[in-house]
Structures are given as structure tokens and as C-alpha cells.
Amino acid sequence: MSGTNQSWFDRARRVIPGGVDSPVRSFRSVGGTPYTVVRGEGAYVEDVEGHRYLDFVQSYGASLLGHAHPAVVQALREQAGRGTTFGAPTPGEVRLAELMTDRVPGLEQIRLVSSGTEAVMSAVRLARGATGRSRVVKFDGCYHGHSDALLVAGGSGVAQLGLPGSAGVTAGAVTDTVVAPYNEVPDLDETIAAVLVEPVAANMNLVAPRDSFLADLRAACDRVGALLIFDEVITGFRLGPAGASAHYGVAPDLWCFGKVIGGGLPVGAFGGSATLLASLAPDGPVYQAGTLSGNPLATAAGSTVLELVTLSDYDDLSARVGRFANDLRDAITGAGLYAETPRVGPLVGLYVAREPFVAPTNFTESKVIGENGLYPSFFHAMLERGVALAPGAYEILFVSMAHGDAELARAVSAAGSAAAEIAGGDGA
Ligand SMILES: *Cc1c(COP(=O)(O)O)cnc(C)c1O
Fold it and tell me: Are strands 268-272 and 254-257 parallel, antiparallel or unpaired?
């Protein structure tokens, strides 16, 4: 590939706003020029200049097996040869829906869409249509995609850029959105259609739910007849074979999925009981549609991933990430900085600071660490050592099935050296 990261970024900026098609990819909050990726393989990506990075971005969680897994590539090749979209039902969408509903207790039906944003937006519409109520509770720092009503107090790129929400969203669009602090059960009443939550918050860095938080939310919703919606776009089929609801033993009324279930292609899904899903068109009055929904390429990739990953793969990954989380924290603290690496199964966060701190339990606490100014230096020190973290302090580390012990050890050693450089650099 000819050109440098700089020349590609310059070209990109002329024709694409900010040079990126999603703001989280920009280096706005860490400074510098993004690397432009030409290929990926397993745990690694390679940029236009031929640099190879150990990749902890993994498309923000869309890749569970690592990049360009041969079985996924093969499934895509075969499907592409048979056609990529028809506007008629296909076996592929049935197969993916069966795989998903078989694995997740309580999930009886799903409707496939093309992104996580669409999944959550549609689930909220369904909840409002089914309850006849308007108001939706979301939690500060949880990200649910970029639909108007849900951008308020969002994590991920919204947090990274320090935006309160978004320009272009009318007051009317958010009057029915109520924001509550994560890990506290809000007071609900009979005006609430739904409570929407990331069962493990993974867009404000990682914040695990407190012991009974999800069960208490379930009970609070039941008391007032509000629906509980789990946004499992990250946790679904990543946290474990059946995602967060099974992990915590709390079933929501509606689930939202994305990322992993597309095997690296654009997909989302929302679902729940057959009774509730009967409110959707064509059977019911809640309209929802999509030209590319249930796309054959995407369902082929997603089904391949779900079929390939075994129970023990999930257990192995969690165990590997458990050791990694401890080693990473120890390497950074051993080098003179402070770190916390909270972990739930294979999900792991990374907070770095110059002073001792306690692992955050909500967005307010996460922001104190996120805004301490250290992450940009740490990010760049890691990138120089060939380890790509997300270019923002509010993302988690995505460890794929292709990240073996050797890769994780490399990242730990890079982190120790990066931390030592930063700790030494200020003359402390
Ligand atoms: C990524 C994400 C979304 C949005 O999914 P897109 O495919 O980017 O639209 C929604 N919810 C959560 C929890 C996410 O992490």
C-alpha cells in the first residue's frame, strides 16, 4: 500500500468529516494522526506503513475470533457467490435467530437489523408501543448508539469528546429520556415505559454492576409495569455463551445485540418473548423495517462465529483475561503509576493515574480518572511499542479469542515499559 498514515489521513479529511466515519476512531482526545489499517489477522492489524499492532480495539467488540478468521472468510466467500441481498426471507437469518434464541434463556424471538443503534432504537419503540407509555430511563455514561433520544449522557465517543449530548437533537426528542446514575436503582413510576441499561457498563471504561443492581432493577421495573431492556451489544455472546442475562441470572424483557453477532459485518438484533415481539409489524402495530436487515453476508459471518465458539473457549478466554488483568495492573503500578483493571469475564477495563484511586462505580467517578490527562500519554507510549488500545479513555480492552498468552504477555511488558517512561518522564 502506498502512502503514509499522514497522507491517507489528509486525503480522508478532505472528503470525510474529521477523516473518520465514526468519531471514536479519531485521535481527537489523544492527539496525533490515526493509523490507517490495510489488513488484520487474528490479534493483529497492519497499517499503510507496514507497522503491525497487537490490536485491543477489535472493532470495538465486533470481532470475537480476531480478524479474518479462516472459517468466517470461507463462509463469506461462499455466501457472496450466492448473492448478498435479496429482499426475501433467507435460511441464514433463520439460522442466526435459532442460534441466538437457543443460547439465551428467555429470548424467544429476535428481529435482525443492521447496527446496535438500530437495535436499541427499535427496542425502545417496541417498549413504548407495547406499554403505551413514553418515558425511558437510561444511565449516565451508558452508550446505546446515536439515536436522538438516547444520546444524552452517553459514554464512548460522546464522553471522549466531552459532549453533553449532541447538537441537532431537539429538546422534544429527549423530554421523555430520564438519566440516572449507574449502579443506583432509580425511583420509577407508572409513566416509565422502559429502563434501559448496559448490564456491564463498557462505554464509560469498565464499570461492573454492583451485586444486586440488576436484580433490584428487575424488581423495580416489575413493581410499576415498566419493561427492562438489557443493551447487550457488547456483552452479548462475549461475556459468556449466553451473555450478561445468563451470567447474572437476571432476564430482561427485551435484549439488544450487535457487534459479536455480525462476525465483523454490520448487524444488530433485538428480541424477547414471542408475546412481546408480536407487537411488531407485520403482526402488530409497532413499525420497524430495513432493506438490508438479516443480510445474508452478515448472518453467514455471525452464525459461523456462534457455531465455532465453544463453552470452553469462553472459559479459557475469561481465565486468560483474568491473569492478564492482574498482570497488567501489577506491571503499571510496579513501574510507578497507579492502575485498576476491573474485569467481568473476558471484559476488562483500564484506568491509569498518578495518584492512588478506587476503581470507579459510575460515570462521575470514571470521568475523574478519564480526565486526569494521563491516558493520551499512555496510549501513545503503547502504540509506539506496537500495542493498539482504543484512542479514548472510556473504552474497554477487547481481547479476542486470537489473543493468546504470548500476545497478552507482550502487552503487559509494553505496559510496564510505557508506565516507567511516563512515571520517569515527569521527574517524580
Ligand atoms: C456499540 C454499541 C451500540 C451501538 O452499536 P452500533 O453498531 O455502533 O450502532 C449500542 N450499545 C452499546 C452498549 C454499544 O457498545
Answer: antiparallel
Atom 8 of ligand 1, residue of closest alpha carbon: 116
Helix (H) or strand (E) holding 136: strand 135-139
pLDDT in tens, 191-243: 999 999 999 999 999 999 999 999 999 999 999 999 999 999 999 999 999 99
Number of the ligand 1 atom closest to the C-alpha atom of 198: 13
282 and 402 share one domain: no
- Tell whether 45 and 89 lie within a shared domain: no
If you measure from the C-alpha of residue 219 to the centroid of ligand 1, how many angstroms do you get, rounded to a whole number? 26
- 224 within some domain: yes
Tally the domains of the chain.
Answer: 2
pLDDT digits (tens, 9 = 90+) for 254-283: 999 999 999 999 999 999 999 999 999 999
203 lines ligand 1 (CB under 6 A): yes
Does 428 map to a domain?
no
For 40-55, b/e burial (b = at least 16 CB within 10 A) is bebbbbbbbeeeebbb
DSSP letters, 99-111, are HHHHHSTT--EEE
Task: Say whether both 338 and 227 belong to one domain.
Answer: no
Instruction: Please write the tens of the pLDDT for every residue from 130-176.
Output: 999 999 999 999 999 999 989 877 777 766 665 557 888 888 888 89
Query: At which of 308, 335, 360 does a domain end?
Result: 308
pTM, to two decimals: 0.97
Report the pLDDT value the prediction gives residue 173, as an integer from 0 to 100: 85
Give yes or no for residue 426 having a pLDDT over 70.
Answer: no
Q: In terms of domains, do 138 and 216 share one? A: yes
Q: Is the CB of 233 under 6 A from ligand 1?
A: yes
322 and 295 together in one domain: no
3-state secondary structure of 38: strand
Q: How many angstroms does the Cα of residue 427 sit away from the middle of ligand 1?
A: 41
Q: Residue 337 Cα, ligand 1 centroid: separation in angstroms?
A: 32
145 CA closest ligand 1 atom index: 4
Q: What's the pLDDT at 170?
A: 85
Which range marks the domain in which residue 33 is found? Answer: 5-64+310-423
Percent of the chain scored above 90 by pLDDT?
A: 92
CATH number, domain containing residue 181: 3.40.640.10
132: Cβ contacts below 8 Å, ≥ 6 apart? none
Tell me, yes or no, whether 127 and 203 share the same domain.
yes
Which helix or strand (DSSP H or E) is residue 197 part of?
strand 192-197
Residues paired with 272 in a beta bridge = 109, 254
Question: Which domain-ending residue is among 249, 276, 308?
Answer: 308
Q: Catalytic site residues?
A: 143, 231, 259
